[in-house]
Amino acid sequence: MSLYYEAAAILANPDNIGGSLKSRIYKKKDLKSTPAQIFALVAESSKWSVVLKPVIEKCGLLAEEKKLTPILALLLSHDLLLAKNGVAAPANHVLKLAITRHKARLSAEFTKARIQHGHAALDAFREAVNNGELDKEDGAVQKISRHPRWVRVNTIKSTLDQQLSTTFKGFRETDNLKDVLLAAKRSKIYYKDPNIPNLLALPSRIDLSRSPAYTSGQIIFQDKASCFPAYLLDPVPGDGDVIDATAAPGNKTTHLAAIVSSQLRTGQKQKVIAFERDKGRTVTLQKMVKLASANSVVQVKGSSDFLATTPGSGEFANVGAILLDPSCSGTGIVGRDDAIKMHLPEVQGGTKSSQKLDKSKKRKRGDEAGNTSEATATLNLHLDDSTPEETPIEGKLSERLAALSKFQLHILNHAMRFANARKITYSTCSIHFEENEGVVFQALASSAAKQGGWRVLAREEQVDGLKNWHRRGIWEDEKVSCDLDEGSKREVLNACIRCDKDTEEGTMGFFVAAFVRDAENVPAQLPEATVDDVEEWNGFSDDGGGEKTEDIDGAAVQQPEKQKKKKRKASGQ
Ligand SMILES: C[S@@+](CC[C@H](N)C(=O)[O-])C[C@H]1O[C@@H](n2cnc3c(N)ncnc32)[C@H](O)[C@@H]1O
């Protein structure tokens, strides 16, 4: 099969295989062309499709060449008009013959299009297309993007200045995030985040996934909000070791590692112990730690349940700080704005590009893709996969929230029992009070917090970048009981940090709060898990609650509550 047939078959996706374009290409066995070749052809043709679609339609290519489907016509026209080496097929190949027959008309229409777009030379036209400037003209569909591409410079491997003078050389700095949100989606502009050090915002569709900085782990794609927990935890060498209790895919682990590494002096030792219960996600975590060159600081405890640890054990005697970012409803997660559109040509005055694609060798026109929008004849292509920080959990919302918040409180209480811990951050990518402030208030009222001397880290005590962040906790009546007076309640809410999705701040929906205890409040003896605390959480049940137990809390879920209580007593938790 030629490059073009292979690329067209992947795009048509007749078997409706999920995942990004890249993963579909790289997972496909028995390809004759290299995945890189196919990916480049599709990505480039998509970028140009806004220009090529009308060019192809004006030439009547599809009406005359029955062998060409809209996708084939687009891919071939792209290579004929724009690829350095032209169409990659032998001179007598049926596809090459079909497209070269129309070379003169296609070239003439293409030149007209270039001039209409106001470019005297092909290089300038190329630059405009690469910057996504034509998408903006395309029916004025360009809305303000709400989600920039957030890029954290991994300071273990690079510095912000190094990145600005290499990866982002030629990019223009703006001091207004709005300029990035309004910019053409691939234009070269960046904004240095004022809250989180070493964080940049770029236009949402900037393609950095093949840049050396990304592939070598010098930069990491991480939403701004997701950078809050490690920064708020603010681990310093005097804190001792840091636990990341629920770590995969490892964005916050590698961020913690970067902060820890930046402060360590020769001879000092401080490690980040990263727990991840899920086997598959452990592999991702290990890869991410390795790519970020964080191995010397991070110890991965893969396929390990944080809840199964014994907080008083000698192994954790040096743990002074814990980052807890447990499973949640994922309701703050936002879809990325980085899908690229492939505009497909239509047969002029004839069939729409929505007939069936014949799976046999004889190609008919067609519904070349399950994800073709008929009205606009476009394919939406998500170029890249990245492992999501959270897998949204399905089921009835109120039941999910009840089960999740019990689990979250339980795991937070567990963290509070670590003998020498002095700082904890608790975060979720949920927008719901129940999983956020609700858990914080219940945790403060728990015996683990009371006996352990835990309190919230007040806003004035927070690191500068977050002290200045204006979105704070919210209160929802009748969701949890609170015996605090109004002033104390306000203080707790003011200590809670929120990010809202779909705002001009460009973040996902997120929540984080920090708990601290002062040295004099650390009890000499470990507080035991009391019946009250244990009864807060009964595990997730398969019956009726609708929770997918394996998604949330694996093995512990199936234990009868009595058994669990006994087990915890025995392990001193
Ligand atoms: C929200 S994700 C963490 C995202 C991660 N902090 C990041 O920023 O890349 C929660 C993770 O916790 C894991 N997890 C849930 N319960 C756990 C437990 N009891 N012990 C260890 N890991 C757990 C889940 O498998 C999931 O990978």
UniProtKB/TrEMBL annotation:
Bias kind Polar residues: ranges: 370-379
Ranges of residues in domain SAM-dependent MTase RsmB/NOP-type: 139-518
Matches recorded under InterPro entries: MeTrfase_RsmB-F_NOP2_cat (IPR049560), MeTrfase_RsmB-F_NOP2_dom (IPR001678), NSUN5_7_fdxn-like (IPR049561), NSUN5_RCM1_N (IPR048889), RCMT (IPR023267), SAM-dependent_MTases_sf (IPR029063)
Active site: C429
Ranges of Basic residues composition bias in the record: 563-573
Positions contributing to S-adenosyl-L-methionine binding: E276, D325
Record's GO cellular component terms: nucleolus
TM stretches of this protein: none
Region spans: Disordered: 344-392, 530-573
Identification of the protein by name: NOL1/NOP2/Sun domain family
